[in-house]
Amino acid sequence: MKLDKNFFSENLKTLFYALVIAIIIRSLLLQPFYIPSSSMEPTLLVGDRLFVTKYTYGYSKHSFPFSPPIIADRILFSEPKRGDVVVFKTPADNRTDYIKRLIGLPGDKIQFIEGNLYLNNTEILKSKISTVDKIYCGDRMIDIMTFEENLSNDKIHKAVYLKEFSYKNSDIFEVPADHYFFLGDNRDCSKDSRYLTSVGYVHKNNLVGKAQFIFFSSDKRIGSIFSFWKWHKSVRLNRFFKKIN
Q1: Rounded to whole angstroms, how far apart are CA atoms 18 and 48?
Q2: pLDDT digits (tens, 9 = 90+) for 130-182
């Protein structure tokens, strides 16, 4: 069979256009992410795959693949809301993606006192749901207490703490202008804004987008997604298309 001389050029054009469309969608609309750690359990589990909306907070250079310096500041900016689950680039290297819950807005004061979270000198109300839960911290199981926390804007979410409250007391964290303070929901198993040398306060330009819903989830401890013969055990059907609170 003789191929048309334009066969290869037309297919290259098709691939190029498909790549451009994919980059536009990923940069301006939706980007998929995979959860590799347990720092946001029970909200997000290792093996969850989720979509993040890129347009929610506007755009910066980090909205695009490889963070090209094409935008000096953030454009079309919309202020994040306390309690949002947000993907951001860590200030330490401006390259690594983290996902945490937004607790502190610019100008807020945050402190832990005897294991309790305080926002602007007012304790965040939390209701104990259970004292006998177990949850992952890396590859080990830990005994935790589960709470529902009610932030100042009535945003309610689950957060878990070790029974002995390993992170009990802290200095006051004062969030600078144009920065945000993030915590993991798995409070005693999360590297977040409490650790100033590794994460610390996150500038608004480092925000990537808002986590919206889980589209696929599988437990990699049972088997990878390529181990189709284990799907009946590893795939978490109850988490498909689950909205992230």
Answers
A1: 26
A2: 887 889 898 889 999 999 999 977 789 999 999 877 888 999 999 999 999 99
Enter the DSSP assignment of 23. Answer: H
Cis peptide before 106 (omega within 30 of 0): no
In a domain, 2, yes or no: no
Q: Are 182 and 169 in contact (CB under 8 A)?
A: no
AA identity, residue 57? Y
Report pTM: 0.91
Instruction: Quote the tokens at residue 79.
Output: 């202020």
Number of domains forming the structure of the chain: 1
- For 131, how many CA atoms within 13 A lie in the half-sphere containing its CB? 5
Q: Tokens 């007391």 map to which residue?
A: 169
- What's the CA gap between 56 and 158, in Å, rounded? 23
Q: What is the CATH number of the domain that holds 191?
A: 2.10.109.10
**Whose CA is closest to 211, among 48, 59, 14, 11?**
48
What is the set of active-site residues?
39, 100
Nearest to 107 by CA among 177, 170, 172, 205: 177
DSSP state, residue 218: B
**Which stretches of the chain are assigned E, i.e. beta strand?**
30-34, 48-53, 85-89, 97-104, 109-113, 116-119, 122-123, 125-137, 140-150, 156-162, 173-174, 179-183, 202-203, 207-217, 242-243
Per-residue confidence band for 51, with pLDDT thresholds at 50, 70 and 90: very high
Cβ contact 3:11 at 8 Å: no
